[in-house]
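User: Show me a protein chain along with its predicted structure.
Assistant: Here is one chain, sequence first, then structure tokens.
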Amino acid sequence: MIVRSKSITVEDLEDDQQQLIEKSDIQTLAKYCTDLASKQEEIKTAEEALKLLVEEADKISSEIIPNLLAEQGLASLKLADGSSVEVKKMYRCSVRKDFQADAFQWLRNNELGDIIKNVVSVGFGMGEDNKAEQMLSLAEQQGYQPEQKTTVHAGTLAALLRERIEAGLDMPSDFFSTFVKDETKISRK
């Protein structure tokens, strides 16, 4: 008598693997899934608590301490532990995306154009290193379209805003988003 062996299919292997998981590790897997869900909930709760702490610290730093110091006519204060407290202005400024061209023109018209970064780049294919070394003016003559991007770094704009405010000048709000607030710095010794 000839006994023929059954061919093993992929489905047979998958069924065997599934049965193995079900028999040996399903409880462990379930425990880890439960642990993961619990940790994710803890993270969500901690993030919400952190957000509230940051908001509370910001209010103390930008409103309460500056107001109390101002009421006492103080600009800074030394604490008993040797730490010093000082309130400084924090400046933020950015170009409004819809008015970038107008903002850059305003900067140029007010002799501030030197803070504008003007980046021009040309893309070349493989093996065209020699063409990449040619001057930008030659790029158009060779049939390439240079890309141009003009920007002003946010830190540079913030410094400009501070300088202009301290000089009694303004920044046009049509072109720039500006933000100024007090910020308390505590230096520990």
